[in-house]
Amino acid sequence: MLKISDLTTHYGSSQALFGVDMEFQTGEIVTLLGRNGMGKTTTINSIIGIVPPSGGSIVFDGEELVGRESYKIANLGIGLVPEGRQIFPNLSLRENLVATASNHLNALDPWTLDKVYNFFPALKERETSMGNILSGGEQQMLAIGRALMTNPKLLILDEATEGLAPIIRQNIWSAINRIKDTGISILVVDKNLKDLLKIADQNFIMQRGKIVWQGSSSELKVDEKAREQYLGV
Ligand code: ATP
Fold first, then answer.
1. What is the pTM assigned to this prediction?
2. What's the longest Cα–Cα distance across the chain?
3. Residue 14 alpha carbon to ligand 1 centre in Å
4. Rounded to the nearest 10 degrees, how much is the dihedral formed by the CA atoms of 64, 158, 81, 167?
5. How far is the CA of 37 from the centre of ligand 1 (A)?
6. How does pLDDT run along the chain (233 residues), one tens digit per residue?
7. What number does CATH give the domain 2-231?
8. Which residues of 176-190 are buried (b: 16+ CB within 10 A; e: fewer)?
9. Which of 106, 157, 181, 213 sits a CA distance of 20 to 30 A from 31?
10. 39 CB under 6 A from ligand 1?
11. What is the distance in A from the centroid of ligand 1 to the CA of 41?
């Protein structure tokens, strides 16, 4: 589904990605791990074209993404749940959801307002509340719901559980598992390794702008050396 080869990305004259290689299949939950500043967000932003790569290739569902504009990449079926949630503060919860709704790929059973509310019943109860008065957990569910309303084939979550209480985090992980069951592939950047290892099929670790380790969750669980060396846990 996604194949990244020799990806390089620069911010002006400063290079952030040094030949990233990553590949995963449809229907997987995949993590991108690494300490701060190693290039995780830059990789995500390169995939979706917010930070255009300077070299390499990203093939998604048979289409080359490098060189395409961000909105065209989104239309191919990639939904982003961005770091910091980026909820529209002066729109109601419902308006936040319908503002992004689309079904570019003509999905047979598309995500609709009702389907998102069925998935996250807590959102229905807060339908008319403005974005800026929602709790952190509600905002996170809304950010996921908003991305689902674009009917993605690949959902990317950047630090989706940052700043959330453990119980809310568990709700988010359980929602992510249920989203996987609908056939959507999921790429997750998060710091909560323990939680991630319970749900991830495959893991990639970055160090200084490159992938330095990849493997299944059971492999990462037993590879203490890699966890210590690359993640410090
Ligand atoms: P974090 O977990 O802290 O978000 P990260 O692994 O997502 O870290 P990135 O944010 O992708 O890392 O940063 C990778 C490198 O690119 C770092 O050296 C960072 O300083 C640099 N960088 C990130 N954003 C910019 C920017 N807008 N302008 C210049 N350099 C940047």
1. 0.93
2. 50
3. 11
4. 150
5. 5
6. 999 999 999 999 999 999 999 999 999 999 999 999 999 999 999 999 999 999 999 999 999 999 999 999 999 999 999 988 899 999 999 999 999 898 888 888 899 999 999 999 999 999 999 999 999 999 999 999 999 999 999 999 999 888 899 989 998 999 999 999 999 999 999 888 988 999 999 999 999 999 999 999 999 999 999 999 999 88
7. 3.40.50.300
8. beebbeeebbbbbbb
9. 106
10. yes
11. 7
